[in-house]
Amino acid sequence: EVQLVESGGGLVQPGRSLRLSCAASGFTFDDYSMHWVRQAPGKGLEWVSGISWNSDYIGNADSVKGRFTISRDNAKNSLYLQMNSLRAEDTALYYCAKDRDSKDNAFDIWGQGTMVTVSS
Amino acid sequence: DIQMTQSPSTLSTSVGDRVTITCRASQSISNWLAWYQQKPGKAPNLLIYKASSLESGVPSRFSGSGSGTEFTLTISSLQPDDFATYYCQHYNSFPFTFGPGTKVDI
Percent of chain B having pLDDT more than 90? Predict the structure, then answer.
């Protein structure tokens, strides 16, 4: 079964850091680009960051540039999001998602999400 | 960056209705557009990719059309399971962007 499982969320104070992980299974991880998408409570979806299969191409939303870093370890079938200088507006449910295939970047598989709450 | 808009923001409908949701991009994205359905407390589910291709397992009452800057998601006959929020998303180039969503309710 194709599966993505996020972890690492929690309550953190403003200005602190947090690292999210996404464990992939059931597919050949290093064939696909991967992404992080977040959803603040009661709000819409926001694409956060994406990374190509070989980490050559990385993109970030303007809202997280300079603070968040996406990475992957293909040997461990894992995706990461290092979040620094966290702000209250980063409070959200964070999903990881995979590309549909090597030529189509629509997100066909999503994890269940991990909640990040930034508050003092 | 490419901005996405959707209309309407809310749609009050009934079972059996034909539903149309419009999504517009601030510049041409060719056909690099996806539609997702999200129900409360659940992750989004891919319905349509490349503007008009139906994802495997998605009922045929869902269809997508458009190219360039204007796109449409149509549900031909709304079923009880279709009451949800629908998002469009471009994936023409980084940064990918979602539309603000359309809530379909009774």
Answer: 98
Identify from B54, B91, B102 which residue to disrupt to test chain A contact, counting A C-beta atoms within 10 A and taking the largest count.
B91
Angle, CA A87 vertex, CA A83 and CA A93 arms, to 5°: 65
**Separation between Cα atoms, residue B25 and residue B89, nearest integer Å:** 9
Q: Is the peptide bond before B95 cis (omega within 30 degrees of 0)?
A: yes
Burial (CB < 10 A; 0-12, 13-18, 19+), residue B83, is middle
What's residue A104's pLDDT? 86
Chain B residues in contact with A5 by the CB 8 A cut-off are none
Closest by alpha carbon to A97, among A88, A87, A106, A89?
Answer: A106
For the residues B37-54, what does the mean pLDDT come to?
Answer: 98
Token duo for residue B15? 């079972």
Say if the Cβ atoms of B87 and A113 lie within 8 Å: no
